[in-house]
Amino acid sequence: xxxxxxxxxxxxxxxxxxxxxxxxxxxxxxxxxxxxxxxxxxxxxxxxxxxxxxxxxxxxxxxxxxxxxxxxxxxxxxxxxxxxxxxxxxxxxxxxxxxxxxxxxxxxxxxxxxxxxxxxxxxxxxxxxxxxxxxxxxxxxxxxxxxxxxxxxxxxxxxxxxxxxxxxxxxxxxxxxxxxxxxxxxxxxxxxxxxxxxxxxxxxxxxxxxxxxxxxxxxxxxxxxxxxxxxxxxxxxxxxxxxxxxxxxxxxxxxxxxxxxxxxxxxxxxxxxxxxxxxxxxxxxxxxxxxxxxxxxxxxxxxxxxxxxxxxxxxxxxxxxxxxxxxxxxxxxxxxxxxxxxxxxxxxxxxxxxxxxxxxxxxxxxxxxxxxxxxxxxxxxxxxxxxxxxxxxxxxxxxxxxxxxxxxxxxxxxxxxxxxxxxxxxxxxxxxxxxxxxxxxxxxxxxxxxxxxxxxxxxxxxxxx
Length: 465
Ligand SMILES: Nc1nc2c(ncn2[C@@H]2O[C@H](COP(=O)(O)OP(=O)(O)OP(=O)(O)O)[C@@H](O)[C@H]2O)c(=O)[nH]1
Ligand SMILES: [Mg+2]
Prior knowledge:
Radius of gyration: 26 Å
Distance between the termini: 26 Å
Structural class: alpha/beta
Largest sheet: 8 strands, mixed
CATH architecture of the largest domain: 3-Layer(aba) Sandwich
Helix content: 55-70%
Bound molecules: guanosine-5'-triphosphate, magnesium ion
CATH class of the largest domain: Alpha Beta
CATH topology of the largest domain: Rossmann fold
Number of helices: 23
C-alpha cells in the first residue's frame, strides 16, 4: 500500500531539500509531480487538486520561503494536510446502549471477517459482543460466522437456513440476545454484487427495524475509486456512520483511503490489513499520514506488539542480556515471541524509513520461516549446550546438524553469530549503543543487518533476530 506514492513523495522532498533557498517555481514544479502521483494512486481528481492547492498555499507562506531548511517544513505541511485529508481525528464507535452495529457492503468486501475482527477487538476492550448472522443468501455464510465466533469465543446467533424474512431474523435475534448477557450486537449482512435494488430494500427494512447506532460500510481498499462510490450509494440507501477499509495489506494504491473521507464525509473507523482476525486496527489519520510519508507508525506497532509479547519473559531476557548471561534458552524464548508476532514484514513497515530500507535487505530477510532452521538447531542441543554454547565443538556440531536436519555450515554460522552477539552485549559501550538504536529507532539498518545475516543473507553484525 502507498508504496509508489511514498516513493514519489520521498523524491520530491529530496529535490526540495537540495535547494538552500526555495523559489515559488521549485514548489510549483514539485507539487505538480505530487499531483500526478496522487492521481496515479487513484485519488479522486478534485480531492487531489484541493489537497495540492492547500499544500501550495501553506508552502508559499513566509515561514517556508525564508526558512533555512525548507524541505523539512514542507514535510511537516504534507503531514498536517494528509492527516486532515484522512479525517483529522480518530472517530470512535458509538457504543451507547442499545449498542447495535450493522455491517453492510459489497460481496466479498470482508463483512463477515470484519464482524469477527471487531467482536474480538471489543471483547479485548472488556465488552461482551454478540454476533448475528443476517446473511440468508449464501448458504455457507451462517456457518462461516459460526466458525469465526467459535474461534474467539463469542456467541453467534444462527438463524434457520430456511428463513427468508430478514426482519423476523433480527427480531428473533434480539430475543435470543436478551439471554446472552451481551453488550454489543454486531449484525453481519449479505453481500451485494453491485447495488441491487431488492437487497437494498431488505437492508433498508432491517436498518429501520434495528435503528442501529452504527452502520459500518465494509469496503475493499483494492477497488480504489469504486469503493468510494459504493460508500456513497450505501450512504444514500441506509445512511452509514463510518467505514471499515479492508485489504490494506494488498497492493492497493491507496486512492480509496485518501479519497474516502473527502468524498463521502464519513470517517474511516477501522482498517483491515490481513486475513487473520488480529489484522485489524483503529484508523488514526495522523498515524496513517506518517506511514504514507514513511515517517513510521511506531505507536501502532507498539500496540500490536504489546498484545503478543510476554512482558515478564521479555524483561527477564533483557536483564540477562544486560548481565551478559544471555544463552540459547533465552534465544528460544525470543524465537517463540517473534513467531507469535506474525509476518515481520507488515510490522516493520511501520518503522520510520523502513519502506526504503526494505528494498536494500536481502529478499528473505523478513521471512520468519528461516527462523525454523535456527530453532531446529537450538532444539537439537542438549540443555547444557544451550546454557554454555562454548562447549559445542566439532563432533557435537556434527551431531546437532544431523539432529536438526541442517548443515554443519548453518550450525557454525549460528554459533559464530551468537558468540559475536554475546561479546557485543558484554561490552558495555556497545550495549548502550544498541539500546540507543532500539529506543530511538535511529539506525535500523544495523539492527536489521543481523536479520539478513542469520538467514545466510549478506547482512552484517547486529542482533541476530
Ligand atoms: N488480505 C486480506 N484479506 C481479507 C481482509 N478482510 C477480509 N479478507 C478476505 O476476503 C475474503 C472475503 O471475506 P468475507 O469476510 O467472507 O467477505 P464478505 O463481505 O462477508 O463476503 P460475502 O458475505 O460473500 O459478501 C476472505 O477470504 C477474507 O479472508 C483483509 O483485511 N485483508
Ligand atoms: Mg459474508
